[in-house]
């Protein structure tokens, strides 16, 4: 998908944004979304009409329930995704899939007349996002797989290990980051990681802390 974008100059300078706490989109990652608020249905319609089909996923600073009419402060860094699949339901919702293209830094929020928010986006700090597999050789894959096995065992969870073993380092780190159960701030840290290996190390550290907490809870139960 990123092959159609050879440089950051191919990406639009203005992006509609979808602020969503806890949602993480990374380059070449796939994020399913259920769109039901009218302003965001309008956003999807506008993105489809524009031809570039790009939407900026970004997290608000506030966590938890918020006034639907509010415009909470947003983080400085998000990820642009291209609508690669969508289906409109009978009740007016849109079930769509976003494929991550490139992270961006917000340089300005526009005083838009649209019901959805729009920003000026600078992709240049993340130009390597357009290069599939950038930084893969530096990833500590064995360390990651070890903590994943221990995390799954501790939580009595199953995984398709054949698929995991066949995944590239980039796909493995980014997909695990996106589906991880960690909170919005942790997700933001993974999004803003300077390299794939830094994201990997953040993921490993978070999993190790969760394992330590699980062990402490088990010990307290036995006492």
Describe the structure.
The protein has 223 residues and is of the alpha+beta class. The chain has 2 domains: 2-128, Archaeosine Trna-guanine Transglycosylase, Chain: A, domain 4 (Roll), CATH 2.30.130; 136-222, no CATH class. The chain has 6 helices and 6 strands, in the order ββαββββααααα. The protein has helices at 38-50, 141-154, 161-166, 169-179, 184-191, 196-222, and strands spanning 14-19, 30-35, 54-58, 77-88, 94-109, 118-122. A 5-stranded mixed beta barrel has the order 1-3-4-5-6. A hairpin with an 8-residue loop joins β5 and β6 (118-122). α2 packs parallel to α6 (196-222) and α4 (169-179) crosses α6. The radius of gyration is 19 Å and the shape is globular. The termini are far apart. Residues 65-69 have low confidence and may be disordered.
Please report which band the strand proportion falls in: under 5%, 5-15%, 15-25%, 25-35%, 35-45% or over 45%. 15-25%
What is the total number of structural domains? 2
The computed structural class is alpha+beta
Percent range of helical residues = 25-40%
Task: Please give a quick description of this structure.
The protein is built from six helices and six strands, in the order ββαββββααααα. With 223 residues, it is α+β, with helices and mostly antiparallel strands.
Layout of strands and helices, then pairs:
Layout: E1 14-19, E2 30-35, H1 38-50, E3 54-58, E4 77-88, E5 94-109, E6 118-122, H2 141-154, H3 161-166, H4 169-179, H5 184-191, H6 196-222
Parallel strand pairs: 1-3
Antiparallel strand pairs: 1-6, 2-5, 3-4, 4-5, 5-6
Helix pairs in contact: 2-6, 4-6, 5-6
């Amino acid at each position: 998908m990123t092959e159609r974008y050879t440089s950051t100059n191919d990406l639009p300078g203005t992006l509609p944004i979808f602020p969503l706490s806890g949602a993480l989109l990374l380059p070449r990652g796939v994020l399913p979304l259920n769109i039901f608020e009218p302003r965001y249905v309008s956003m999807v319609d506008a993105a489809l009409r524009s031809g570039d089909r790009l939407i900026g996923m970004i997290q608000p600073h506030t966590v938890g329930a918020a006034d639907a009419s509010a415009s909470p402060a947003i983080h400085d860094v998000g990820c642009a995704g291209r609508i690669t699949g969508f289906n409109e339901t009978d009740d007016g919702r849109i079930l769509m899939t976003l494929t991550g293209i490139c992270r961006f830094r917000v340089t300005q929020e526009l005083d838009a007349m649209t019901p959805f928010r729009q920003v000026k986006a600078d992709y240049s700090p993340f130009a390597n996002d357009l290069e599939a597999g950038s930084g893969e050789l530096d990833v500590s894959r064995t360390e990651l797989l070890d903590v994943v096995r221990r995390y799954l065992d501790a939580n009595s969870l199953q995984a398709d290990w054949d698929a995991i073993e066949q995944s590239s380092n980039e796909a493995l780190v980014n997909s695990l980051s996106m589906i991880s159960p960690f909170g919005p701030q942790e997700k933001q840290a993974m999004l803003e990681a300077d390299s794939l290996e830094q994201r990997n190390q953040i993921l490993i550290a978070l999993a190790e802390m969760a394992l330590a907490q699980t062990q402490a809870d088990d010990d307290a139960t036995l006492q």
